[in-house]
Prior knowledge:
Chain A is α+β, with helices and mostly antiparallel strands. Chain A is built from two helices and three strands. In chain A, strands 2-1-3 form a three-stranded antiparallel sheet, with no helix packed on it. Chain B has a four-stranded antiparallel sheet with strand order 3-2-1-30, with no helix packed on it. In chain B, strands 4-5-6-7 form a four-stranded antiparallel sheet, with no helix packed on it. Chain B has a four-stranded antiparallel sheet with strand order 10-11-12-13, with no helix packed on it. Chain B is globular. Classes of the chains: A alpha+beta, B mainly beta. The interface between A and B is medium-sized, with 15 and 11 residues.
Amino acid sequence: MQLDSQATVCSVLDAIERDFPVLRGTIRDHETRRRRPFLRFFACGEDLSHDAVDTPLPEAVGAGAEPFMVIGAIAGG
Amino acid sequence: MSGIRVLVGTRKGAFVLSADGTRKSWDVSGPHFGGWEIYHMKGSPADPDRIYASQSSGWFGQVMQRSNDGGRSWEPVGNKFAYEGTPGTHQWYDGTPHPWEFKRVWHVEPSLTDPDTVFAGVEDAAIFRTTDGGQSWQELPGLRNHGTGNRWQPGAGGMCLHTILLDPVNAGRMFVAISAAGAFRTDDSGETWRPINKGLQSQYIPDPAAEVGHCVHRIAMHPSRPDVLYMQKHWDVLRSTNGGDSWEEVSGNLPTDFGFVIDVNSHEPETIYVLPIKSDSEHYPPEGKLRVYRSRTGGNDWEPLTNGLPQRDCYVNVLRDAMAVDSLEPCGIYFGTTGGQVYGSADGGDSWAPIVRDLPAVVSVEVQSLP
């Protein structure tokens, strides 16, 4: 995925929503831009869900060597 | 009529049940959107192949789906439901102010004439409209802002706008119902609204005859007589003969006047159907007997319909959007249960048979009578 700026949670999600508009509102709220509560963000074995969204992601993610993962919580009935 | 299509929304996906006009042999398609809650699906009266579906989950929130081929394939459309202006507050369960927050779409109501125009009833209660086939949605804010919104309160299922009735005779007139606020009417295509709850009595709220605050579960109308409305309230079945200006109770000899669904026979405007449920905490049929009750007199005088329905050990519920009628002769009636059964009657309710028995819990049932 091509990013417009440095790899951060925000820039990755911006790129996802740019390329796949149907995902708008499903990962983060349309208006508040907050992560939906039953989703978490992981990369390089680290839970990044509570980091500021403009924090740079690990270099390996920006280089395309490691994935940035949006994970649904194990929950529900 | 060449066929019938029953659209079933469940807790874990959508199902499409199809039959020819005899309504004897059914094909079951699905699950579509497996694992997702499908609160409602409904087809356009102007183009039966155009169907809209509300798809949601706790993980990914709201998605709206559209089919242009009668439910064989689907495409996601717009899912942004933003309240107009500053949303303000309604009452929380404890009576304190609580901000309006969009949660999900409960009901989709396609226009009677334009396949691209659809109304959506949402939680927290508001009505939205699309005129571009679901790509974008705009609130009709006159409902939420007409003056009583700060007194609306959620029912046990949330503060949802669950019923939208489009008047086929009086242009611009619509009715909606909200739990727990009541029924409302517009006469100018949704610009302005007013509560229509005169005659409702709800003993569970501080003022039983309040202008708003009533937990209306469902309202129904026969298209040939749009001034006559029927209501299943949290308790009480009611009827209005003046477009909701006033209501009178018609519970009559029902075993319990609690329930969720109410509908009208497509050929007999005075013949109505309810499904009594034991409440407040049980929410299953009285005596373990699944009985639809029919009145041929617009209420008050009711008869149980039991032929083909389980008459022992039945403890399912039938939710508010889970009954519908077709337009064949005689009228077909369909309802779905929280136990996953969809029952149908092809003779106005005289006899019933399960179409499917083991779906996920059924949330909604709609019917299309295909040309």
